[in-house]
Amino acid sequence: MKNFRYLFAAAILIASSGAHAIDGFSVLYGHSDSSNVSVNMGRVGVQWDWNKKLLEAGNWHLGGYWESDFGYWSNNSNNKTHSSIIDIGFTPVFRIQQTNLSTVAPYVEAAVGLHLLSATSLNPQRQFGSSFQFGDHVGIGMRFGDKGKYDLGYRYQHFSNGGIKGPNQGVNYNEVRLQYHF
Questions:
Q1: Which of 121, 122, 123, 153 is deepest in the core (most CB within 10 A)?
Q2: C-alpha span between 100 and 84 (Å, rounded)
């Protein structure tokens, strides 16, 4: 119950911080590929573009965005310790993409974000040590549609607490993500 109070407070903070400046909305589906677990994950998120080009080369640049998301993990594992986990995250995402978007504009991205989980294990073989987790991912995708309003991508994501507290067995996900840019 204590963790849910922290999750609720974090959700209010995330929802209230700069909501007027939201640049995009996303939905994501993932499935774990870690041994000893079978977990489906769904997340919704909002994004704020940095509107900065950190590096430029021809029609390509390195930029990024902030992503805040809320997730639900449905645990279908054998010997599960929790049937579901709530996940609240905040992530700076670095992305290499076209400056002037073509009809179908590819990109690559990488990120390490902060996540707070409502539980610290999926089963006895997959324990996280703490509710605080890092969520790092690499991804590829494409923007398309009028002015690149749509974004379809694949991410490979790893959750772990980075060795802050044991056990630190972590979990990995294959994810498909759809975003709408305002």
A1: 122
A2: 42
Domains identified in the chain and CATH numbers: 2-181 (2.40.160.20)
Task: Give the per-residue pLDDT at 10.
Answer: 52
Of the pLDDT bands very low, low, confident and very high (cuts 50, 70, 90), residue 1 is very low
Determine contact, residues 161/132, Cβ cutoff 8 Å: yes
Q: In this structure, which amino acid lies at residue 165?
A: K
> HEC string of the chain?
CHHHHHHHHHHHHHHHCCHHHCCEEEEEEEEECCCCCCEEEEEEEEEEECCCCCEEECCEEEEEEEEEEEEEEEECCCCCCCCEEEEEEEEEEEEEEECCCCCEEEEEEEEEEEEEECCCEEECCEECCCCEEEEEEEEEEEEECHHHCEEEEEEEEEEECCCCCCCCCCEEEEEEEEEEEC
pLDDT digits (tens, 9 = 90+) for 15-38: 545 555 899 999 999 999 999 999
